[in-house]
Write a structure and sequence with these properties.
The protein contains 15 helices and 6 strands. The chain has 373 residues and is mainly α.
Length: 373
């Protein structure tokens, strides 16, 4: 019996009278899957083929409307601002690909979609293509497709690689309305994602006379959950907010009348636009604040891409490497630290920038945030 597993779901395949029979059992139990294959063979042997006719796959538009959007809305119910697939779904449903059954969609359809929306920028086209890729991967995981679809994105998408100068950042922050100014400082100093800052609550921060710590509870991946020390500027911003709010023990740090209850990206866009107009700084997307922070933190990390990945909340170092550019002097310094004439096999002690007592102190303070595993 040809039972095999795709994701968490068992499939079976066999040949009957020269025809390949392949079907998902929609089961994660191997024995049940074997029984279903055996029942299918018996049905074929008894000539009851009509009973087992394969149900037609839904069209892409129907799948997006009935399955994908429902899943996305449920998954992001607590963070409605992060539901970035709705626009992509609308684009896909309006396209010629929307009427194609999902088991017949190919990368060629994706490229035709790109042609239909050629009037948009590559970033605009990729909004729909990324939605398609996510939707088809879920269809595969749910046993509706035999294999995932590889989707080629539009080329020459504008990357958010600009790094603000100290002068630009200072002039920009001076013109930012509140609460965006404080949010922007946290992003530009700590390297947080904007959404991570908006969703901060008072139990997520520790303020004391020696500084402070910030805990990020959730994000794009498990790696997004992290605890970082505050810069002096961030400490002052949060301390001022804390005292002004009456030293609360719970609630949002940046509350608002929005549906989520806190300041969000929609309001931030308006504040950002006004700050750019008033400061006369050359236009940039808000995410450049995070890119600027990570670039500078990468320089301070001395090329330690693993440390920077922990700070940034990246699940892999592939993205982090964009922010680490070791110069010739840095490379020479690494080898110089080994000592002239060092022999292979010699044990080398690397001194930490923090003393043992400082590291112990930081660990003790972090326990106050009740760190999870």
């Amino acid at each position: 019996m040809a039972i095999y597993k795709r994701g968490n779901i068992y499939w079976y395949k066999f040949r009957w009278n020269g025809e390949l029979i392949r079907e998902s059992t929609k089961q994660s139990n191997k024995q049940i899957a074997r029984n279903m294959e055996s029942a299918h063979r018996t049905t074929l042997a008894n000539g009851l083929v009509g009973i087992r006719e394969k149900r037609p796959a839904p069209t892409l538009a129907d799948f997006l409307k009935g399955d994908f959007i429902t899943f996305a809305e449920t998954k992001h119910a607590a963070k409605p601002g992060t539901l970035r697939y709705r626009q992509g779904c609308d684009m896909l449903k309006k396209s010629g690909m929307g009427k194609v059954p999902i088991d017949e969609v190919t990368d060629q359809h994706a490229q035709q979609f790109a042609g239909e929306f050629a009037r948009l920028s590559p970033s605009g086209i990729n909004r729909g293509l990324r939605t398609l890729r996510r939707a088809m991967n879920l269809a595969y995981r749910w046993g509706k497709l035999e294999k995932p679809l590889k989707v080629s994105l539009a080329q020459h998408e504008v990357q958010r690689d600009r790094v603000l100068s100290e002068k630009e950042l200072k002039e920009y922050l001076a013109k930012c309305p509140q609460p965006w100014r404080d949010c922007a400082i946290l992003i530009a100093d700590e390297g947080f994602r904007p959404g991570e800052v908006f969703a901060l609550q008072w139990p997520h921060v520790l303020l004391d006379s020696r500084g402070g710590l910030i805990r990020i509870l959730e994000g794009k991946s498990k790696a997004a959950r992290r605890v970082l020390p505050m810069t002096p500027r961030v400490f002052q911003v949060l301390k001022t907010r804390y005292e002004t709010a009456g030293k609360p023990t719970e609630g949002w740090i940046f509350p608002s009348a929005s549906r989520s209850g806190h300041f969000n990206s929609d309001a931030a866009k308006e504040h950002h636009k006004k700050a750019l107009e008033d400061s006369k700084v050359a236009a940039f997307p808000p995410y450049v604040l995070r890119h600027t922070a990570l670039t500078r933190l990468g320089e301070a990390a001395g090329g330690d891409v693993f440390a920077l990945a922990r700070i940034a909340g990246h699940s892999t170092i592939t993205i982090t490497q964009r922010y680490v550019h070791p110069e010739a002097e840095s490379i020479d310094r690494v080898f110089a630290n080994l000592g002239v004439g060092t022999k292979l096999g010699t044990k080398i002690k690397i001194k930490s920038k923090n003393s043992r007592s400082q590291r112990a102190d930081l660990a003790t303070r972090a326990t106050h945030l009740q760190l999870g595993s």
